């Protein structure tokens, strides 16, 4: 389970001693795990979906975080994927650079009559 640390020990003081000095581990909720649940905790689950060319994905980090992408190539040996993205174009910056269009700051509003 994500966010939990499981330690096998004979006594409570052994657990406290093992966790002492490790940042991020707080010994506040120590509980005995029933033997029937131990197998489920340590079984490995395959959660990685099969990725293939042409699939759609959502970018999780970086400049394009949250954008939609299309998978172009998959390299399973290096665990790398090449994706195709739509570039983000700042139309207001282009208009200001090349003199086309009007921005709201440059438009003069006539005085009321």
TrEMBL record:
Record-annotated Spt5 KOW domain positions: 51-113
GO terms classed as biological process: regulation of DNA-templated transcription elongation; regulation of transcription by RNA polymerase II; transcription elongation by RNA polymerase II
Domain NGN: 1-42
Gene that specifies this protein: Vigan.06G027800
Listed GO MF terms: mRNA binding
A GO CC annotation given for this chain: DSIF complex
InterPro entries in UniProt: KOW_Spt5_1, NGN-domain, NGN_dom_sf, Rib_uL2_dom2, SPT5
Domain of life: Eukaryota
Protein name as it appears in the record: Uncharacterized protein
């Amino acid at each position: 389970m994500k966010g939990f640390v499981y330690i096998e020990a004979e006594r409570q003081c052994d657990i406290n001693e093992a966790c002492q000095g490790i940042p991020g581990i707080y010994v506040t909720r120590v509980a005995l795990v029933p033997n029937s649940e131990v197998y489920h905790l340590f079984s490995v689950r395959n959660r990685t979906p099969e990725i293939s060319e042409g699939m759609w994905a959502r970018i999780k980090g970086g400049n394009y975080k949250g954008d939609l992408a299309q998978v172009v190539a998959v390299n399973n040996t290096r665990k790398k994927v090449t994706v195709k993205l739509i570039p983000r174009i700042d139309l207001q910056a282009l208009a200001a650079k090349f003199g086309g269009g009007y921005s709201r700051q440059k438009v003069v509003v006539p005085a009321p009559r």
